[in-house]
Amino acid sequence: MSAMIARTLTSAGRVLATAGLLGALAGPAAATPGPAPSPTPGPAAKTLVTDACPHKQVPPPAVDESEVPKPGQPSPTPLAVPDPPVGGGKLGGCGLVVPDGAPPVPPGIDSAGWLIADVTDGTVVAAKDPHGRYRPASTIKVLLAQVALRDLDLTTVVEGTAEDAAQEGNGAGVNVGGRYTVEQLLEGLLLASGNDAAHALARQLGGVDATLRKMNALAASLGAKDTRTASPSGLDGPGMSSSPYDMALLLRAALRDDRFVRIAATPQVTFPGHPPVPTTAPSTPPPPGQSPPPAPTSVAPYPIVNENRLLTDFPGAVAGKNGYTDDAKKTFVGAVDRDGHRYVIVQMFGLSQTGNTYWDQYRRLLDYGVALRGKSVGTLVAADGSADRPERAQEDLVVESGPSGMGNGTRLLIGLGGLGLIAVLVGAAMRTNRGR
Question: How far apart are alpha carbons 33 and 285 in whole angstroms?
C-alpha cells in the first residue's frame, strides 16, 4: 500500500480492515486459536545492510522536511553512544547478533533493526542492529502511556480543543467540546493510534514540552539510552530516535502495569462523541441555485477498534503497538506468552508495503525466538543499568499505584456486524492518520 494511502486511512477504513477487508495493516485472515504454528518460510525481502553500523548515532536520512528545525533553533546533537553497549558487548554488533550455533534467521524479515527478547528471564535471544537508531513512529506511544499512567488520574475529564483535532493523524476523533476521561484518551491513543489523543494527554501533563521532558526522563531511567522523543505521538521531529533494544525495555516496563495491559489489549471501545463544532459563517451567500452549507451537527459516541492484529491472530498475545511514518517506515513492538515465557519482539524500519505484513514477520521471529529458548546474546538491563531480575509469575509483577477507573466503552470483539458501524464512522468527521 502506498504511503499516501497509509496517510489517509480513516476510522471507517480500520473497521473495514478489522471486518476482513483490506486496510493499511491487513494481511492474512485471522488465525484460528490453537497451538503455535511451526516456522514457515517467508518471501525474499529487501532490507538495509547494517553491518558497518550506519545508524549507530542517527537514524536513516529523512525523506521529507519533518525533522528540519524551526527557524532559529539548532539541530539536536546526536545522543552519545554508550560504551560498553547497554545489555552486553555482543549487542554492540550492528548486523545479525545470534547465539553460537543458531539456525539461519527466517527469510522475509525486512526490518533494518529487530530484536527478540525473553522478558521472563531478562535475556535478548537474537537481534539485528539492536542499538541502531531508528525513528519509533507511534510505538513511542507506549512511553507516553506510561507517563500518563504515572502522573494522571484515569477518571480525570479532559475537554477536547481545536488544537487536538488539528493534529496530523487525528485517528481517535478528539474534538472541540468533547469530554474524555484520561482512560478514554489512553484508549484512543493505544487502540486507534490517535495523535489527537496524544496531544490532549500532553496538555493534561503540562504541555508538549513538559511531556517530552517527562518521556525522555523516564526512558533514560529505564536504561533506554538510544531514545529521544521529539513529539508525544511519534510524529517525526528533529532528533527523534530509539532502537530495537530500547523499545523492548519500554514495552517491558509498560507490561508491568496491569492498567496498560488492560487498555492495550481491549478489542474495541465506544469513544465519546462531541457537540457541533463551531464554524465560521461564509462571508457571502451561496451562488444562485446552490444551498448553503449544512449546519454543524453533534457526533454521537462511536466505536473504535484495536488495530493491533497481534491480539486476534496470536494465541497468548498480551499487548503491542504498531507505527508508521514516511521517515520511520513500519515499526512494531509486541508481547506474546508462549510455553511459560513472555517474548517481546521489536521491528523497526520495515520496508514492505504490501503483503509480508508486521504480523507475518512477527510470527516468523516469534517461532525463531521460541526455538532458541535458553540461549542469549545479551540482557535487558534493569532501571539501574544492571542485568534485570527474572520475571516471576504474572501476579508478582510490579503494578503502578493509582486509580483504575474504567472507561464507558463497550468492550466487544467486532465481527461480521462490524460493517454496520461504517455509517456511524462516516457520519463523524473524516480523520487523517498520517503518523501511526
Answer: 60
Instruction: Return the SS3 of 348.
Output: strand
pLDDT band for position 385 (cuts 50, 70, 90)? low
d(Cα 164, Cα 391) in Å, to the nearest integer?
Answer: 38
Q: Mean pLDDT over residues 190-207, rounded?
A: 99
Q: Does the N-terminal peptide bond of residue 403 adopt cis geometry, omega within 30 degrees of 0?
A: no
pLDDT of residue 387: 57
- State the Cα–Cα distance between residues 375 and 100, nearest whole angstrom: 9
Partnered with residue 376 across adjacent β-strands are: none
Catalogue the active-site residues: 138, 141, 193
CATH superfamily of 89-277+298-379: DD-peptidase/beta-lactamase superfamily (3.40.710.10)
Contact 73, 385 (CB under 8 A): no
SS3 category, 245: helix
Query: How much of the chain, in percent, has pLDDT values that exceed 70?
Result: 77
Do 174 and 271 form a contact (C-beta atoms < 8 A)? no
> Rounded distance, CA 391 to CA 363, Å?
23
Phi, psi at 121, each rounded to 5°: -110, 5
3-state secondary structure of 176: coil
Name the binding residues for substrate: 321
In angstroms, the CA 302 to CA 316 distance is 28
- In 3D, which of 415, 192, 177 has the Cα closest to residue 302? 192
| DSSP code at position 169 | T
Q: Give the residue carrying C-alpha cell 493509582.
A: 402
User: For the chain, first and last CA: distance in Å?
Assistant: 14
pLDDT tens digits, one per residue of 111-154: 999 999 999 999 999 999 999 999 999 999 999 999 999 999 99
Element (H, E) at 336: strand 329-338
DSSP string, 365-434: HHHHHHHTTT--SEE-B-TTSSBPPPP--GGGS----S-----S-------GGGGGGHHHHHHSPP----
Residue positions counted in the chain: 436
Domain boundaries along the sequence of the chain? 89-277+298-379
- Helix (H), strand (E), coil (C) string for 108-150: CCCCCEEEEEECCCCEEEEEECCCCCECCHHHHHHHHHHHHHH
Q: At 350, is the secondary structure helix, strand, or coil?
A: strand
Q: Rounded to an integer, what distance in angstroms lies between the CA atom of residue 149 and that of residue 261?
A: 12
DSSP 3-state assignment of 346?
Answer: strand
The three-state secondary structure class of 68 is coil
